[in-house]
Amino acid sequence: MVAVSSAGEVSGWNTYDRTKELKEFDETKAGVKGLVDSGVVKVPRIFYNTPDVHLHLHETDQSIQNHSHEQIPLSFPIIDLKEFIIDKKDSSLRKEVVDQIRKASETWGFFQVLNHGISISVLEEMLQGVRRFFEQDMDLKKPLYSRDVNRRIVYNCNFTLYNNPSANWRDTLYCFMSPPPPHSDELPSVCRDILMEYKKQVIRLGNALFELLSESLGLSNKHLTDMGCADGLSLLCHYYPACPEPELTIGASKHTDGDFLTVLLQDQIGGLQVLHQNQWVDVPPTPGALIVNIGDLLQLISNGRFKSVEHRVLANKIGPRVSTACFFTTGYRPSTRIYGPIKELLSEHNPPIYRETTVKEFTACVHKKGLNGISVLEHFML
């Protein structure tokens, strides 16, 4: 275990040149997978999961800091979209789905969807495509390794590696898919076809989800799409190698998503946890399901009604764990559109609690902050 002093410092944390070791690791362009392939049996210090100096009161319990798997008996929301997406019946069941999404978005900020219209074969091929990319020869991946946030296709280890309090045990392929769509030759050949197909199907699902979310807010079903919430899509393909000392590090630090909405595909290894009712709750891998969560920007424009909830991914001795997160956001294309709390949701008794911003400004703030445990929304509160 990592020794922690009464001052909250990791023993030996200040006895080495962290910036130098980060740079040396980054310059290998091999990522965490490169460490594992080299036969590493000890987690390097740059990956030590440092004590969270921004702990909420409910997180001060040592068991939570130590990745406790103890769970409270809660049922993670699972919503069946069959009547809405597959059968497309205009029935009372639509109202039931809208009510379920409203409740989950206001309380959990997360829910799983079944019968979402994307076939099992496409989901499985997407996960296999991610594995093929990360498990190909290193020389084929290195040309995509970059920290340039303006590039459309990027592979690296931790986007905010130098800003995070600790490095996370994962590598990522980032693909900005629209608008406009990338040229096919920009995408890695080993997963090009499935990336294009998955993008098309997730955009269709995203538009359906934004309809249901609009109705859940009491708005017309096209309100959120008319605002441009579904205009942009980024795919983040994560690869979490097996970790020799998972108690020392973490797959993804506690964070919220800086987008409007995220649709996540995870494999059967699991490890994703959501902070709910002051405790970390496992998100169970459910065959055929996709996980949907509210992003910071949707919390902002809903004036806090929908919750962008903190979540994390544990490191694991089993692996690799593979996932694909689809971010609906317009943050990587020039836009002067102003976003603030939706006026139809405001009243004398419900005044705005967030200031207006552009997605470009909001996203820049997310990148600058890194995964430091503080919600970026605090910067935009009135």
Automatic annotation (TrEMBL):
Keyword hit for Magnesium: no
Domain Fe2OG dioxygenase residues, every copy: 231-331
Record InterPro entries: DIOX_N, IPNS-like_FE2OG_OXY, IPNS-like_sf, Oxoglu/Fe-dep_dioxygenase_dom
Entry GO MF terms: dioxygenase activity; metal ion binding
UniProt cross-references to Pfam families, sorted A to Z: 2OG-FeII_Oxy, DIOX_N
Sequence similarity: Belongs to the iron/ascorbate-dependent oxidoreductase family.
Protein name: Fe2OG dioxygenase domain-containing protein
